[in-house]
Amino acid sequence: MSAEVPFPEADLLHVVELLSPEERLRYQRLRRFFQDRVRPESIDFWNREEFPFDLVKELGNLGLGRLQIDGSSALFKGLMYTELARADVSLSALVGIHNELVVGMIHALGSAAQRARWLGPLGSFAAFGAFALTEPDHGSDIAGGLSTVAQRVDGGWLLNGAKRWIGAGTIADVSLVWARDAEDGAIKGFLVETDRPGFVASKINHKIGLRIMQNADLAFDDVWIPEQNLLPGASTFAAANDLLRDSRAWVGWQAAGIQLAAFDVARAHALSRQQFGKPLAKFQLVQLPLSEILGNAQASLALMIQFARLQEDGQAEMAQAAMVKATTTRLARASVAACRSLLGGNGIVSDYEGAKLFGDAEVLYSYEGTYEINSLIVGRAVTGMGAFV
Q1: Contact 144, 156 (CB under 8 A)
Q2: Domain CATH for 283
Q3: Alpha-carbon gap, residue 359 to 211, rounded angstroms
Q4: Would the CA dihedral through 152, 154, 156, 159 be positive or negative?
Q5: What is the rounded CA–CA span in Å between residue 258 and residue 143?
Q6: In this structure, is residue 6 part of a structural domain?
Q7: Does a structural domain hold residue 46?
Q8: Which of 39, 91, 248, 254 could form a Cys-Cys staple with 85, CB 3.0–4.6 A?
Q9: How far apart are the first and last CA of the chain?
Q10: What are φ and ψ of residue 7, in 5° steps?
Q11: Residue 1 included in any domain
Q12: Which whole-number Å values give the CA distances from 158 to 131, 154, 199, 365, in the listed order?
């Protein structure tokens, strides 16, 4: 397996030229690091379900832990998520969740003391954060069904309940936990240091995708936290809506990236492998799926670029985020399936990357709102009638 992206360039629509000259240079530097280091090194970690701490530290040194607060344009951030997903989807998920849902939430909703305590170490990946919302019995209905409880006591709060599928849950230094206030019923956000008594994180094993990401079950058994750990800007769940909307759309950048990866892998295989006395790339039945994969990827990028414009103009809405997430992950599923098929027998072995991409795409299709739920959000927007409560 070579980490080199074959010539000619896959950016047929010149997307990168939309960046400013300064961001273009940074994009090119980071993309080369992703391809030269992250892509080849990630495969063994993915196979072993292990976390590459040293590699992530290097991502921190390159500023990837601060994308949400370093003044980068929405387009640059999105293309970073795309190019990192092109190298490895798990690490793109880590960087995206870290920025969109942890650093972003603390920066937007936290107190001055909370920002001073956490944004520095989080921004360099000297510390890790987790975003704890989903529960064992509540996923799509989490806003109304959330059952983790925060009970006010002298000087602070007691947390009781459980969370599931929490990214970086076993390695996090702090977890942003959403719990229902036992007194007023409102869902509020709390910063919970993971070394507090009563906090237990258990790794979820045997996943078919995002195997580098350390997803976990979290349990809270009378976990006491001081009053100052309540995020002052997160006294109701509605306070998080804008950031949750943007994190949903963020998966669309990942979906574009995994499709570019599928194109890179499939094209490299087609150009290097000989069958019936000529390269696979000369066969019509090989050129067709290559064209379709790249077309799907470019269509996904076009959707995401328009959404980035809406973000910059302050016009982004949840229905738009749901549409781009659902559409791009549907296309990603088709693209990685075509890649896996084109690789033949090697397509079912993760050493050749096609199978790795195939598994990761299934996770993109389901997390940050399933394909079905996001489609129903769009349906409600265009008909004015909700198909679910």
Answers
A1: no
A2: 1.20.140.10
A3: 9
A4: negative
A5: 30
A6: no
A7: yes
A8: 254
A9: 48
A10: -90, 145
A11: no
A12: 18, 10, 11, 35
Whether residues 298 and 340 fall in one domain: yes
pTM: 0.92
Q: In this structure, what are the phi and psi dihedrals at residue 129, rounded to the nearest 5 degrees?
A: -120, 155
**97, 218 contact by CB (below 8 A):** no
Tokens of 143: 């806003």
Q: Which of 53, 63, 8 is nearest to 33 (CA)?
A: 63
Whether 246 and 351 share a structural domain: yes
pLDDT at 47 over 70: yes
| Same domain for 134 and 166 | yes
Residue type, 360: D
Percent of the chain with pLDDT over 70: 97
CA dist 221 and 236 (Å) reads: 23
Shared domain check, 362 and 286: yes
| Residues 168, 95 within the same domain | no
Query: What's the pLDDT tens digit per position in 97-150?
Result: 999 899 999 999 999 999 999 999 999 999 999 999 998 987 677 777 789 999
What confidence tier does 389 reach under pLDDT thresholds 50, 70, 90? low
Q: What is the DSSP letter of 52?
A: -
Q: Which residues contact 235 (CB under 8 A, 6 or more apart)?
A: 186, 188
Q: Where does a domain end: 83, 107, 123? A: 123
What's the domain range around 305?
239-383
